[in-house]
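[retry 2/3] TPD1 protein-like protein 1-like: previous attempt timed out, resubmitting with same input.
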Amino acid sequence: MHERIANITISQSQTGKTVENKPEWKATVKNDCICTLSFLKLNCNGFQTVEDVESSVTNLSFIYAWDTSFPFKPPSSQVICS
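[retry 2/3] TPD1 protein-like protein 1-like: success.
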């Protein structure tokens, strides 16, 4: 599954693991622009997981577990071009 908004692509795939009988998903956020992206926020209204999500995500990917993938959409971000 892929969501694309402006220069941001959010892809998700199952890891092959299950947590509490729910498939585990890996979500990856990719900046397709040559400019730096900062202050990216994801709309997470209704997001559920039975697995703790690491709070200090630094590599722009995280893993969660739920019956279906969640349609993350970035409502805002800043592009910094020099």
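[retry 2/3] TPD1 protein-like protein 1-like: The two ends are 32 Å apart (CA to CA).
[retry 2/3] clearing retry counter.
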